[in-house]
UniProtKB/TrEMBL annotation:
One of its GO terms (molecular function) is S-adenosylmethionine:tRNA ribosyltransferase-isomerase activity. Its main location: cytoplasm. This is S-adenosylmethionine:tRNA ribosyltransferase-isomerase. Gene3D superfamilies: QueA-like (3.40.1780.10). SUPFAM superfamilies: QueA-like. The lineage of its organism: Eukaryota, Metazoa, Porifera, Demospongiae, Heteroscleromorpha. It is found in: Cytoplasm. It comes from Geodia barretti.
């Protein structure tokens, strides 16, 4: 059983644009190198190249500055964060817009095994697991293994247009540790199944299966119906947004008609969808 150990970072920053004094929001999307990030911001007119945003703690004890370096495609900005070490005390978890109330305990939006900071959204299939459940799974002889894929916002963007093959999905950083690769190879030799927990784990495993020499870097695999799965034998996944790349991935695995029928049944039985919702096991 393979899990994504990526941890959600406090990537949503609220601050003041220094020239105008306007309140702005900056959402760090992807770290390119130390101090340099791709980010989204609003209002966009306040965040032109050269703008600086001061983000300060409520008590004034800590602060950092975000400088807009470059305008990128799809509304993204390239920014410099002056003090990344301050983010933990200044930023907020970037909860999806359909979550209207912030959880009392931010750890509710983290998996119990998350220890690799870098995601801007939780690999939510893993939220169903507790330490006790993991111990129980292992007691049945199931091997647990870990990969990292830092989840970006592009994973959740709806697909527009009629030709889904033309949809551009951005890369996400991943890592396949040597011990995980060894565990997967041992399971294969023993005839055991590889169960991926979450679509991000699926994407990581199938990317590595496509390029066996790639154990860390940028995953760019867009899994559509017709994809031949090379590593994943089963997956646990939540119920996803319509017209999302995630829904296309599970349809590629189980078949579109079967997935649509499962979703209709879930709606009829009032299952919960999305991040804090229920999950399905696809065999």
């Amino acid at each position: 059983m393979v899990f994504n150990r990526s941890r959600v970072i406090p990537a949503r920053l609220y601050g003041t644009e220094t020239r105008s004094g306007a309140r702005v929001e900056v959402l760090l999307v992807r770290r390119q190198e130390p101090g340099i990030w791709q980010a989204l911001g609003r209002p966009g007119r306040r965040l032109r190249v050269g703008a600086r945003v001061t983000v300060e703690a409520h008590d004034g004890s800590r602060s950092t500055q975000v400088e807009i370096l470059e305008a990128l495609e799809n509304g993204l900005r390239l920014v410099r964060v002056s003090d990344e070490s301050a983010l933990g005390g200044l930023g907020e978890l970037p909860l999806p817009p359909y979550i209207k109330e912030t959880p009392d305990d931010p750890e509710r939006y983290q998996t119990v095994y998350a220890d690799a900071p870098g995601s801007v959204a939780a690999p939510t299939a893993g939220l169903h697991f507790t330490e006790a459940l993991l111990d129980r799974i292992r007691s049945y002889g199931v091997t647990t293994a870990w990969v990292t894929l830092h989840v970006g916002l592009d994973t959740f963007r709806p697909v527009h247009g009629e030709d889904i093959a033309e949809h551009k999905i951005h890369t996400e950083w991943f890592e396949m540790p040597e011990d995980t690769a060894a565990a997967i190879n041992a399971a294969r030799r023993a005839g055991s199944r590889i169960i991926a927990v979450g679509t991000t784990t699926v994407r990581t495993l199938e990317h590595v299966a496509r390029d066996a020499d790639s154990t860390a870097g940028d995953a760019d695999l867009f899994i559509l119906p017709g994809h031949r799965f090379r590593l994943v034998d089963a997956m646990l996944t939540n119920f996803h947004l319509p017209r999302s790349t995630l829904l296309m991935l599970v349809s590629a695995f189980a078949g579109r008609e079967r997935i649509l029928a499962a979703y209709e049944e879930a709606i009829r039985r009032e299952y919960r969808f999305y991040s804090f919702g229920d999950a399905m096991l696809l065999l």
